[in-house]
Structures are given as C-alpha cells and as structure tokens.
TrEMBL record:
<dbReference type="GO" id="GO:0004029">
    <property type="term" value="F:aldehyde dehydrogenase (NAD+) activity"/>
</dbReference>
<feature type="domain" description="Aldehyde dehydrogenase">
    <location>
        <begin position="33"/>
        <end position="493"/>
    </location>
</feature>
<dbReference type="InterPro" id="IPR016163">
    <property type="entry name" value="Ald_DH_C"/>
</dbReference>
<dbReference type="Pfam" id="PF00171">
    <property type="entry name" value="Aldedh"/>
</dbReference>
<dbReference type="InterPro" id="IPR016161">
    <property type="entry name" value="Ald_DH/histidinol_DH"/>
</dbReference>
<comment type="similarity">
    <text>Belongs to the aldehyde dehydrogenase family.</text>
</comment>
<protein>
    <recommendedName>
        <fullName>aldehyde dehydrogenase (NAD(+))</fullName>
        <ecNumber>1.2.1.3</ecNumber>
    </recommendedName>
</protein>
<dbReference type="InterPro" id="IPR029510">
    <property type="entry name" value="Ald_DH_CS_GLU"/>
</dbReference>
<dbReference type="InterPro" id="IPR044638">
    <property type="entry name" value="ALDH7A1-like"/>
</dbReference>
<dbReference type="InterPro" id="IPR016162">
    <property type="entry name" value="Ald_DH_N"/>
</dbReference>
<keyword id="KW-0560">Oxidoreductase</keyword>
<dbReference type="InterPro" id="IPR015590">
    <property type="entry name" value="Aldehyde_DH_dom"/>
</dbReference>
<feature type="active site">
    <location>
        <position position="266"/>
    </location>
</feature>
<keyword id="KW-0520">NAD</keyword>
<comment type="subunit">
    <text>Homotetramer.</text>
</comment>
Length: 512
C-alpha cells in the first residue's frame, strides 16, 4: 500500500481507524458503528472507519456555510486557479491515485489511469469555464431600462457517489462546483472511502498554498446510507448530486423535493446497441467487447442489450464468443488483464440470480457466467463475462444487473429495433452500428433513441468530458461534466435596471 503513503493518506488515521469527517479545519473520527472496506481483488481488509453520524453533519454544515461566504466572493478565475492547481497535483500523483482506484474498485490499471485522467481533463475544462460563467443581456420593453441575467454561486453542494467511478464522478461535480463558487461535501460509497481521502488530500495540498481559499471548500464525510439520507434532507444543501442505483435516486429525489431543493441524479442504465445488417462488424465487435465486458460490466454505461438484425446475429454471436474466450481475467493490477473482479460476493450472487432468471425466462447462456478460480487471487469474485440469447421482452432484460451479462436480442426492421431499444425503464446510453445514413440519422432524431447519450459507430461506454453526461427516465435526468452542466451549480438572477426618470410598468399597466 505504498500508494497510500505517497499520497499521505496513511496519516489520516488514529490507530487503525481512519478519520471519517474531514473539512480541512477539522479531523474527526466517525461517531457511528465501525465498518471495514475490502479490496475486491482478494477480499482482504483495506481500511477501517467509523460511520460519520447525522449529528456530526450539523457542525460540518456550519463550516461549509462559512466557507461559502468567502468562496462566493472570490473572483471565479481565482477559483479556476484553485482547480488548475488541483489538476496539476492530480497529474503528479496519477499513478498512485489509479492504484487506489484499482485496490478499492477492482478496475484494471489502464482503466483506473483513465479515470484519473478524466479528473485531470475536467480540471482543464473547469479552468476554462471559470472565465466563461456568462449570463445574458436582454432587451427591455420599457424605455430607460436594461435587463440582464447573472449566474451566482449556489451554496454548499453535497455529492453522493457510487463505488464504480469513485474519482471521476466527484471530479465532474467538484471541479465545476468549485469554479462556480460552491463548497463541496463528498459522501463517497462505503466501498471506496480511501479514494475519497486521496482526492481530499490532493485538494488540501493545494488549498494549503492558497490561504484565501476556505479549507472546508473540499470536505468529506464517510458514512453509509443513513448519512446520505441526513444530507439529502438538510436544507443547507441547495443541490444534492447523487450517483448510484435507481432505488437510491428515487429515495434521494423524494427527500430533496420534500424540502424543494434541487437534486442532480445520475442513476442506473440499461444500455443498448443496435447492429444493423449494413454495420462494419469488425468495428462493432471491438466496441461490443469493450462496452459489455470492460470494467467487468460495472459501468453505468456498460452495454447490456445487443439488438442485432436477424440476418447477422448468428455470425456475430459466434465471433463474440471467440473474443470473450480470449479475454484475460485476473488481478486488475497485472499487466495484460482486461477483466478484473466484481466488487463483492453480493454482486456475484446478483449475477447468478439474473442468469438463472434468464434461463427460466427462456434464455440460453451461450457463453460464460461462471466464477473463475484458477490463476486469479483467492477471495476475489472473478467471472467469465456472459452472453445470453433471449427474447427482448423477457422480464430480466428490463433490469440493470451490475455485472457483465450481455443479452443478445434480434429484430427484423429498424423501427422495431428502436422500439426495443427504448422499451426499458432506464435511458442512459445507446448506440447504433450502421453504414446507412438514414438509419444513423433516424436513430439520433426525435423518433430515435430516447437516451441521454446516442452514439453512431461507437460503443455505449467511455464518454468524453466535453459533453453533458447523463440520461433520461429512471436514469434520473441529470447532466454533469461538459456542455452547460456548470449551470447546475449556480443560481440565476434576472436584474432589471431603470436608468430613466420615470417608472413605466411592464405590460403597459397604468397604476395611478
Ligand atoms: P448504490 O445506490 O448502492 O450507492 C450509491 C451511493 O448512494 C452510496 O454512497 C450510498 O451510500 C448512497 N445511498 C444509498 N442509499 C441511499 C439513500 N437512501 N439516501 C442517500 N444515499 C444513499 O450504488 P452503487 O452500487 O455504489 O453503484 C452502482 C450503481 O450506480 C449502478 O446502478 C450504476 O448504474 C450507477 N451509476 C450511475 C452512474 C451515472 O452517471 N448514471 C455512474 C456510476 C454509477
């Protein structure tokens, strides 16, 4: 665990237990029950924490509110400078940060490095944005008047994250939120708390050299669902950004809505790819394997449904099976391995249950699904990614099982393919492989994919930070990262200024 030492995280503990409340000013042990986080690589204990409690949240909220009072008045380009330096610090420790991701989330190192790169990229993006928090000037209908729109800092933002992108998701929210003038409280997944401490440490290294930046601008509380619920119900957070399962999102959305706060939700996906008879199948094959088996099927954008034209399905499945059989499965930090472990035994159990349900519902497992024991670290749950041929309307196909199961479905005409693609509760990512301009355009048109992401001749996973990321329906409707997602972290004011000597009323109303 040399990476923890290099990053300085090893010092964030008392005895064997890490601090659970970190605000830059304060370090406290959690006052709730203790828990250990395990590495999915071999099931070994990695870290020990006590849950931070809802009571501890109250004092943190006070610190965040104080931090907001200063941060909101610091010019945005200076806040950009903070983020620029955080990006530099993350560059310096890219290897070590990636190792922490691999240890906690089980990602293969190249993907973990990619995740840190995403953080670095979003820093660069946010620095540019810090000089472009533009409003509008609007013509007034009244003589001697001027109107404008301004974007103002919003307040402390809470970020609740999932285990599978422990750094990228925080960085999408935090780097933009900081530039927008909002202190950020992270409540990470209980399965990846060290990643949170690593990011905290990187940011605090920078803040230590920028005395005008309030320390609590980057804060962390480690805790479970109870802490998440306390955060969601606390009116000190005008925005709660929550990433995770749809069940979690529904709970958070209702709690935040009950106090008329805003929530930004990034929830489960059930992503599909349509493979048309005209598709470049070599290209499609590579995209399918990376999207479906990469990250051991544990991306929100993982390809779960392959909607293949009946004329090409048999040949494609045959090639897929060959490709799957050549995937090297094993220790995520060993070079050459492409598929690491599932996060834990529960996840393995869910995968097996889904495969059994698929069989009961008429599906045929044509490849994989079983646990891999040979040549992998004992104690980890490694699986052969599965390929299942099944009817598109089987119940299990409607669900997101967070494991590598690819359901192969068939279609006869393209409109039917789009209908199958849209006919699930989730709406995150989608793709079509086609050489037909008409099919590609139809897929992206109002009558096409109903997802937040609709790709042509690219797989469903691996989005770039420049676009707005997120999805519709049960995926929650949120958009993060690029495009105009920065507006989530600001409030809009409309200002009307009267520089004339009269007081004309709008809509020509006379009131005298
Ligand atoms: P999860 O829902 O179990 O946990 C996510 C986070 O929510 C954790 O921090 C957890 O403590 C917290 N939480 C759980 N219940 C809560 C509640 N009632 N109130 C407040 N907080 C609560 O998810 P997971 O297993 O860590 O992650 C996998 C899921 O996340 C998948 O469904 C995946 O698709 C989704 N995901 C979505 C995106 C996206 O951008 N759309 C990105 C990554 C992961």
């Amino acid at each position: 665990l040399a990476c923890l030492e290099t990053l300085g995280i090893h010092s964030l503990k008392q005895g064997d237990t890490f601090y659970s409340v970190l605000t830059g000013n304060t370090r406290e042990m959690g006052q709730g029950h203790s828990f250990s986080a395990h590495s999915p690589i071999d099931g070994s204990g990695l870290s020990q924490f006590n849950n931070a409690t809802p009571e501890q949240l109250s004092s943190v909220v006070g610190e965040l509110q104080d931090a907001f009072k200063s941060l909101r008045t610091i010019p945005a380009p200076r806040r950009g400078e903070l983020v620029r330096r955080i990006g530099e610090e993350a560059r310096k420790y890219k290897e070590e940060l990636a190792q922490v991701i691999s240890l906690e989330a089980g990602k293969i190192l190249p993907e973990a490095l990619g995740e840190v790169q995403e953080w670095i990229d979003v820093c660069d993006y946010a620095v540019g944005q810090s000089r472009m928090l533009h409003g509008l000037s609007i013509v007034s209908e009244r003589p001697g008047h001027r109107m404008m729109e301004q974007w103002q800092p919003l307040g402390p933002v809470a970020v609740i994250t999932a285990f599978n992108f422990p750094m990228a998701v925080w960085s999408w929210n935090a780097m933009l939120g900081l530039v927008c003038g909002d202190p950020i409280l992270l409540k990470p997944s209980e399965k990846a708390p060290l990643c949170a401490l690593a990011m905290y440490q990187i940011a605090q290294n920078v803040i230590a050299e920028m005395p005008d930046i309030p320390k609590a601008s980057v804060s962390v509380m480690i805790g479970d669902r109870d802490l998440g619920e306390a955060i969601a119900s606390n009116p000190a957070f005008p925005l709660v950004s929550a990433t995770g399962s749809t069940a979690m999102g529904k709970a958070v959305a209702q709690t935040v809505a009950a106090r008329l706060g805003r929530s930004l939700l990034e929830l489960g996906g059930n992503n599909a790819m349509i493979v048309s008879p005209t598709a470049d199948l070599d290209l499609a094959l590579r995209a399918i394997v990376f999207s479906a088996a990469g990250t051991a099927g544990q991306r929100c954008t993982t390809l779960r449904r392959l909607i293949t034209h009946e004329s090409v399905v048999d040949g494609l499945v045959e090639r897929l099976v060959k490709s799957y059989a050549s995937l090297s499965i094993g220790h995520p930090m060993e070079e050459g391995n492409l598929v690491g472990p599932l996060i834990d035994e529960t996840s393995f159990g869910r995968m097996q249950a889904a495969l059994n349900a698929a069989k009961e519902q008429g599906g045929e497992v044509v490849y994989g699904g079983e646990r891999v024991i040979a040549n992998v670290p004992a104690g980890g749950f490694y699986v052969k990614p599965a390929i299942v041929r099944i009817a598109h309307d089987a119940e299990i196909v409607q669900e997101e099982t967070f494991a590598p199961i690819l359901y192969v479905l068939t279609y006869t005409d393209f409109d039917e393919a789009i209908e199958i693609q849209n006919n699930v509760p989730q709406g995150l990512s989608s793709a079509v492989f086609t050489e037909s301009m008409r099919e590609a355009e139809l897929f992206m048109s109002p009558a096409g994919s109903d997802c937040g992401i609709a790709n042509v001749n690219i797989g469903t996973s691996g989005a770039e930070i420049g676009g707005a990321f997120g999805g519709e329906k049960e995926t929650g409707g949120g958009r993060e990262s690029g495009s105009d997602a920065w507006r989530n972290y600001m409030r809009r004011t409309t200002n009307t200024v009267n520089y004339g000597g009269d007081l004309p009323l709008a809509q020509g109303i006379v009131f005298e």
